[in-house]
């Protein structure tokens, strides 16, 4: 079984295996290239397509960005991400249409065992000891705004039309149409017509 298959089956995997390091190296180098370019450089959007799993026709990354694999992330139409987007996509990450991500947001679809001995349980004949990891998917629905300094942990499902407040750590699912915030992040209330700002037009 390939190490990438172990990730998708929810097993412990060795992130230091060459098979995985090669995927990550390609993506890390492309992220570095993207981050060095002027924000008006027309080649920036095409760099994203060189490593991303899937993305819609309209998207914008302010940069800097950092993806771990890139090919494990799938993004819909009309996506926008502000400064310092970090996507640790060891597990697959699915993002819907019309999603906005604020500055310093991290999507973290990877973790380590809590028991210390299990973090070094993968030992090999050549003496190599791996720091064991496992990954859970992240699902983000349509029309979601994730405000600044938010961390979304693996295994989380964020529904449609959700707002995640600044500084939140999202460890559990958030239902459709809610504003949610806090550490840990919790659904606070449904978003209603009373929240309209059309008068500001």
Automatic annotation (TrEMBL):
<comment type="similarity">
    <text>Belongs to the transferase hexapeptide repeat family.</text>
</comment>
<keyword id="KW-0012">Acyltransferase</keyword>
<dbReference type="Pfam" id="PF00132">
    <property type="entry name" value="Hexapep"/>
</dbReference>
<feature type="domain" description="Maltose/galactoside acetyltransferase">
    <location>
        <begin position="4"/>
        <end position="57"/>
    </location>
</feature>
<dbReference type="InterPro" id="IPR024688">
    <property type="entry name" value="Mac_dom"/>
</dbReference>
<dbReference type="GO" id="GO:0008870">
    <property type="term" value="F:galactoside O-acetyltransferase activity"/>
</dbReference>
<keyword id="KW-0808">Transferase</keyword>
<dbReference type="InterPro" id="IPR018357">
    <property type="entry name" value="Hexapep_transf_CS"/>
</dbReference>
<dbReference type="InterPro" id="IPR001451">
    <property type="entry name" value="Hexapep"/>
</dbReference>
<keyword id="KW-0677">Repeat</keyword>
<dbReference type="Pfam" id="PF12464">
    <property type="entry name" value="Mac"/>
</dbReference>
<dbReference type="InterPro" id="IPR039369">
    <property type="entry name" value="LacA-like"/>
</dbReference>
<protein>
    <recommendedName>
        <fullName>Acetyltransferase</fullName>
        <ecNumber>2.3.1.-</ecNumber>
    </recommendedName>
</protein>
<dbReference type="InterPro" id="IPR011004">
    <property type="entry name" value="Trimer_LpxA-like_sf"/>
</dbReference>
